[in-house]
Design goal:
Elements: H1 8-17, E1 25-31, H2 33-41, H3 43-49, E2 53-59, H4 62-74, E3 83-87, H5 88-97, H6 112-115, H7 120-123, E4 127-128, E5 131-132, E6 135-136, E7 142-147, H8 148-153, H9 164-177, E8 184-186, H10 193-201, H11 219-233, E9 237-239, H12 242-251, E10 256-260, H13 263-270, E11 278-281, E12 299-303, H14 310-322, H15 324-334, H16 341-344, H17 361-366, H18 381-396, H19 403-418
Parallel strand pairs: 1-2, 1-3, 8-9
Antiparallel strand pairs: 3-12, 4-5, 6-12, 7-10, 7-11
Helix pairs in contact: 2-15, 10-11, 14-15, 18-19
């Protein structure tokens, strides 16, 4: 860390900001969807403290941010903005392939005291040795977002849905009572979301938590794929992409959507005229008394190593992610679930939310955080996910006799692609 002699007034201002690097600058951030909107919601509070640092948030879309970051890092960092949003699940791809593309936040002020403000599971994929490539932002504790009126018309109490079999039975009742309404939707063509959510709930994933073994064909993952196919075959889950789901929410064609807690902001902002008609309940499990917690998504912010404004960029990142004010502003406005431990204790978390029918949705959603099992993306996440999605499509089309055979095949393909061994 660099130190300079500064005047008393300036010193007070800098200490108040939590940074010794405040400066005039124009910053650009790449992000997507509600994450981009949430970052914008922090700017008013940030600029009260730092009026000379202008921040522009560019909403490029999730896949485009990923693709542009890969291309820019491959070009030596050329073209990167000052700050980028990185999904935790994909983070290790960048650190492994391009270790010099992003700044070490420890050089900018991300010290042990600040690191201790975040749960260790959020930092695992963001730090390599003594290098901290990114600062934790949000997490994605999974919940089912549901239409109260559709469930009530069918006489379904969401509190009674403890297992995925219960979910299937409830879906049949709800669709029968509400013609044209599907129970839930899954992006079977472009994503692995439902498999990842339920397998994480069951303590399984593509890789072991130490990232050293392939575990996609372990019994819990096999049981997960079997159940996802059963829900698809029963009509409980119908295929829909991201935009189609939002349209179905607004048009009243979907009774439920299951996602990480950050989806709260998507529902609330995308279907603002449906206030009071939505609620939240915890995800079902393979058995009624099984686990009911998982994580999907969760991002971080990294600073480009070749940014000319690294000090100012750190000043913003530290405010947005390292203060209750910044984190709770994003929670209030767009439902970004904080990883900052002190922000989770903010009084707002325990307030009844009018949009959600007076339910204390944040207290309910965040209550699952301590129960979530860690899940590792590793540097091979892109390869493994692509293999899984192709396997899922083939299995759904009858290309495998059973889920075990399908995931054994996927494991062998991932072994060939990564060189990692398949767990016994």
């Amino acid at each position: 860390m660099r130190f300079k002699l500064i005047g008393a007034t300036a010193a007070v201002a800098l200490l108040a900001s939590g940074s010794a690097f405040a400066q005039s600058a124009n910053l650009t951030i790449w992000s997507w969807n509600v994450a981009a909107s949430a970052l914008k919601s922090t700017l008013e509070g940030f600029n009260k403290l730092h009026p000379d640092i202008k921040v522009t948030v560019e909403d490029l879309g999730n896949q485009q941010v990923f693709d542009k970051m890969l291309a820019a890092c491959a070009a030596g960092g050329e073209g990167l903005p000052d700050i980028v949003t990185v999904e935790n699940f994909e983070a290790e791809i960048f650190w492994n392939r391009f270790p010099d593309c992003f700044a070490n936040l420890k050089d900018l002020g991300y010290n042990a005291d600040i690191q201790a403000k975040f749960p260790e599971f959020k930092r695992t994929e963001l730090e390599v040795g003594d290098v901290a490539y990114a600062m934790p932002w949000d997490s994605g504790p999974v919940a089912v977002f549901y239409r109260r009126d559709f469930y009530e018309k069918a006489g379904v109490d969401p509190a009674s849905i403890k297992s995925w079999d219960d979910f299937i039975a409830a879906g049949k009742k709800i669709s029968a009572a509400n013609p044209g309404v599907v129970m839930a939707q899954a992006d079977f063509n472009g994503d692995s979301e439902w498999f990842r959510m339920i397998s994480n709930e069951q303590g399984c994933g593509y890789f072991s938590t130490d990232g050293q073994n392939i575990t996609i064909n372990q019994p819990a993952c096999v049981a997960t794929l079997e159940k996802v196919k059963e829900m698809k075959d029963a009509g409980t889950l119908t295929a829909a992409g991201w935009d189609e789901k939002i349209q179905a929410n607004t048009a009243g064609k979907a009774a439920s959507q299951m996602y990480g807690g950050w989806y709260e902001g998507t529902v609330r902002s995308g279907s603002s005229d449906l206030s009071g008609k939505w609620g939240v309940y915890m995800m079902p499990s393979l058995t009624p008394d099984g686990p009911h917690a998982a994580n999907l998504g969760g991002s971080s912010l990294a600073i480009a190593a070749n940014s000319a404004n690294k000090e100012a960029a750190w000043t913003y990142v530290d405010y947005a992610l390292g203060t209750n004010e910044g984190q709770v502003a994003m929670l209030k406005s767009f439902g970004l679930v904080p990883s900052l431990l002190s922000a989770v204790q903010d009084p707002f978390v325990n307030e009844a939310q009018p949009y959600w029918g007076g339910q204390k949705v944040w207290a309910d959603i965040l209550s699952t955080l301590p129960k979530i099992k860690p899940s590792r993306g590793t540097q091979f996440q892109t390869d493994a996910d692509a293999i899984y999605k192709a396997t899922q499509t083939k299995y759904f089309a009858g290309g495998y006799p059973d889920a075990k055979t399908a995931l054994d095949d996927a494991a062998k393909q991932i072994e060939t692609a990564t060189g990692l061994p398949i767990a016994e």
